[in-house]
Amino acid sequence: MIYPYECKTCGPFEVIKSVKEIDKPEQCPTCYIITKDRRIGLTRLGDVDNNPSYNPAFGKVINSKSHLRSELARMRDEGRDMIEVGNESPDKIHKHFESARAEKLKNSWEPAEKALHDWRNGR
Predict the structure, then answer these.
(1) What string of DSSP letters covers 11-73?
(2) Contact 64/71 with Cβ under 8 angstroms?
């Protein structure tokens, strides 16, 4: 979970830690002062993104992961298939690249095999 803290000198900062460590004091990442002042408010999981950023693939600012996913779905509906990188399982990625590599190898040898076949048959 992400917990908000308040440094009396520097202001708010966030710490990612388990629920078991909720009472543990934290160190401000700027001035290194130890604080127990946890800000009251909602804690959240990592799916929330409070830092909108420009995404060159879409040519616009993406506000959150849900906004990103809706843009991906919209592009898929338009026939422009894109995927969100980083969410695929390693097995799926390995299978994709192994099959792509095998297809590329097959395609690279096809002209040579055809030429050899034609040569052997006197064409």
Answers:
(1) EEEEEE--GGGTTS-EE-TTT--EE--BPPS--B-TT-----EEETTTTEEE-SHHHHHHHHH
(2) no
Q: Splitting the chain (123 residues) into consecutive groups of 10 residues, what average pLDDT does each group show?
A: 84 84 86 79 50 78 82 84 69 86 86 87 82
Secondary structure (3-state) at 117: helix
* CA atoms within a 13 Å half-sphere pointing along the CA-CB vector of 119: 6
Residue pair 16/2 in contact by the 8 Å Cβ criterion: yes
How many Å apart are CA 50 and CA 7, to the nearest integer?
20
CB atoms inside a 10 Å sphere around CB 120: 8
Domain ranges of the chain: 2-35, 49-87, 89-123
